[in-house]
Structure formats: structure tokens, C-alpha cells
Write a structure and sequence with these properties.
The chain is α/β, with parallel strands linked by helices. It has one domain (4-184): 3-Layer(aba) Sandwich (Rossmann fold). It has helices spanning 15-24, 46-51, 63-77, 93-98, 119-125, 161-184, and strands at residues 4-10, 31-38, 56-58, 81-84, 103-107, 130-137, 147-154. It is globular.
């Protein structure tokens, strides 16, 4: 099987990166992670890139310089798909346009509800019965791209923002690899 070359963008703990790396080690998984990019030097997820011997770059700079640097690396490595995994920086419309249909993101809500930040607090404040996570294509509008997969999670009366975040993160680790398989097999 010829795997597509992928790049994962992270800003934090990298648990979704780890999930994708583990899936990518399977012969039948359709991508190979060629590069990890972070906009933060302190991103703990960089440890997964090191552990699994995946090249990584830290580009902690303004958006214009970040995107210029990323474009050079992506073209150099012939990257075919970009996975945003806890990446907390908004990409420019021009960048997104260049990779239309090739950038995926995971968001901790059942989009189109609760786009943006502070998701868990907002979900609990509105007394939702369910929340969940969504893998979607990235477009020019925040958290508005075509939905690839979603997973619903029942909210308990005992849930706090932290408890809900942990429940949803477990599901994120499951659906991100499945979403990648789904779009590559299209």
C-alpha cells in the first residue's frame, strides 16, 4: 500500500497526535506522518514526535512567518494531507485555500454547535444532554468545514468541564483515525 504523506500540527499535549501515530503504524492505515509542526516550544506533544522518530519543527512566530515556514516544509516533504490535532492557531484563508480538502481538524463538540473555545463550559451552561466531538475539513470559517465524522457523548449531571473534556478526548482518539481512513478511501 502506498501511504499518503501527512503532517500533524499541534499546540499542546499531543494525545490526538499519539493516536494518529499509533494508527499510522498499521500497514493498512492510509497515511504516514512525515512531519509534526508546533507553534509552541512548550508543546508536550513534541515528545511523541521524538519518541516515534518523526521529524518536527517549532515555528513560534506570527501567522505570516509561520505559514511561510510551513509552506516550505510541506512542499519540501511533499505533504498530501494536514491534520490539526489540538492546534490553537487560526490559519489564513490563503493557506486554507491552497490545501482545500486536504486539512482536517478535530473539535470537542458536536458541530455546528459550540464552535471556538471554552466548549465544555458552554455546553454545561446550556444544560445539553449530549456533547461529543467532530472531525471536519477546514475551510475559511472557524469550525465550519464539512463534517467527516462525529461521536456523541452523554452528559452526566455530575460532569464538570474537566470530566466532560476527558470523556470526549477518549472518543477523539477513536474517531480521528477513522475519519482519516474514511476520507482517504473516498
Amino acid at each position: 500500500m502506498v501511504k499518503k504523506k501527512a503532517c500533524v500540527f499541534i499546540s499542546g499535549s499531543g494525545t490526538n497526535l499519539k493516536s494518529i501515530i499509533k494508527s499510522s503504524r498499521d500497514y493498512n492505515f492510509p497515511i504516514n506522518i512525515e512531519l509534526v509542526i508546533s507553534n509552541k516550544k512548550s508543546a508536550k506533544g513534541l515528545n511523541y514526535a521524538k519518541k516515534y522518530s518523526i521529524p518536527y519543527r517549532i515555528l513560534a512566530c506570527d501567522r505570516r512567518k509561520f505559514e511561510q515556514g510551513v509552506l516550505q516544509l510541506i512542499f519540501l516533504k511533499k505533504i498530501e494531507i494536514i491534520c490539526l490535532a489540538g492546534f490553537m492557531k487560526i490559519l489564513s484563508k490563503n493557506f486554507v485555500r491552497k490545501f482545500r480538502g486536504k486539512i482536517l481538524n478535530i473539535h470537542p463538540s458536536l458541530l455546528p454547535k459550540f464552535k471556538g473555545l471554552n466548549t465544555f463550559n458552554r455546553v454545561l451552561e446550556t444544560n445539553e444532554k449530549f456533547s461529543g466531538c467532530t472531525v471536519h475539513f477546514v475551510n475559511a470559517k472557524l469550525d465550519s468545514g464539512k463534517i467527516i465524522l462525529q461521536k456523541k457523548v452523554k452528559i452526566s449531571k455530575k460532569d464538570t468541564p474537566n470530566k466532560l473534556a476527558k470523556k470526549i478526548l477518549i472518543q477523539e482518539h477513536k474517531i480521528y483515525p477513522r475519519a482519516i481512513m474514511k476520507i482517504i478511501s473516498l
